[in-house]
Amino acid sequence: MFTRRILVLISFSAVMTAMVGAPATAVPQGRGSYTGVIDGARYRVEMPDRWNGTLVLYSHGYYPPGLPLPEAVALSTRPETETWLLANGYAVAASNYRDDGRGFEVAEAVEDQFKLLDWFGANIGRPKRTVTSGLSMGGGVSIQLDERQPQRFDGVVTQCAAYDINGTFNTALDALFTVKTLLGTPDMELVHPSDPEAATNALLAAMVAARQTPEGQARLALAGAIGGVHDWGGAFVPKPTELGERLSQQFTWLSSAHLYGYGPFGRADVEARAGGNPSWNFGIDYRRQLARSPQRDLAIQAYAAAPGTDLEADLDALAGARRILPDPQAVAYMYRNVVPRGTTPDPVLAIHTTHDGGALTEQQSWLADAVRRNGDPARLRQVYVFRGSHCTFNAAEEITALRALLHRVDKGVWPDLGPATLNAAANALGPDYFGVFDFLDGQSGVAPPAFADHAPGKYQRPSF
Predict the structure, then answer these.
(1) What pLDDT digit, counting tens, does each position of 105-116 carry?
(2) Do residues 268 and 316 touch, judged by C-beta distance below 8 A?
(3) pTM value?
(4) Sheet holding 155-159, edge to edge
(5) How many other C-beta atoms lie within 10 A of the C-beta of residue 427?
(6) How far from 242 is each of 220, 245, 301, 457, CA to CA, in Å?
(7) Are residues 192 and 156 in the same domain?
(8) In the 8-state DSSP scheme, what is residue 455?
(9) Which of 58, 60, 182, 395 could form a disulfide with 219 if both were Cys (CB 3.0 to 4.6 A apart)?
(10) How far apart are CA 178 and CA 119, in angstroms?
(11) What is the average per-residue pLDDT within 278-292?
């Protein structure tokens, strides 16, 4: 299950001895570990033997509500990255956010990370430079941190980031609206769910039943294409080319991230924070959505393989279905607290897998567009790893991205970010840094560096 698997993704770090209470008052000398609680948010700070003056502030990703969490506060995407940073003189720090970081706590995370920076300055010392790194939802947090108080940062690394979370909920709404309309769940509450568990179970039952027939598979493929859902869901399997396997892996994404992460459970959480429903599909032309989708060909092939279906009739049914309006105050909350503007006050290096179905790779297209409107494109660089699944980076790739950003911070120019150069730098770290975890199937394995050229398609439902 998506909600259980994602927890494993952030449970790498060893459990630290708790030091809850008043933090140290003297500037530390040598290796040190500091943990505590600031206004309800657990934090962890690790200092190297010899600090080079650089602090890496890490923002973790989405923790689903209601499930147990790992005891340690994560300081990097991979545990080997934390080890490397400390061995090379970097300080690392992270807040777990209040309520142990459960839910889409972007607004809360930004506040809690700033409080940790205040603690660090008062108890450790002022860094010579500070970079903020974030995973998934935490990538959006990192962008927000830099936009809110740019004087406190020198650069940003985002990993598999979900920047436009409101757009994410819109694309999930589109996919589940298609399921509801075409697969026999007409009374299902897609917004304001009174019983998220019942709504989730009903949608899942309809989707599982549809998988049993070519007609149902075609309509699931249409839902996936309209929601921009990718068709490669594994870090340790080749990119699928056969129709049945592509449909199977797309279904894995649709029934996990889009149903469990952004469906009724996730929506109830966001609506509680935003004071209402921030999503809508009023005025959306689903024919246009299909035409611009990176997965359009998959839907076309699935309908061709199901002679009893009529794509045009199904699109007519979607066009005639009753639409959903947002609550204005909830939309305002998302723009005010969650969706960044793309002002790039400091350099940003974004790294994404090419076929991420959790935080769609097309989020990078949204960020580039936002930066062109509101920021400085010269401060943004985006690199890609040819791999399926969400946040399936190895430590070599994570470290290489951090080093590339630090080069830009120190030298004022970007280094060569071509795939050959990046792969050479990552491979030089050695196979001990090639471990990868795939949350979709819960498997750990080894994947060598795989930086590659990639041009993601347009984001399906941008907030602006």
Answers:
(1) 999 999 999 999
(2) no
(3) 0.91
(4) 32-38, 41-47, 91-98, 54-59, 129-135, 155-159, 348-355, 380-388, 451-452
(5) 15
(6) 17, 6, 11, 22
(7) no
(8) -
(9) 182
(10) 48
(11) 96
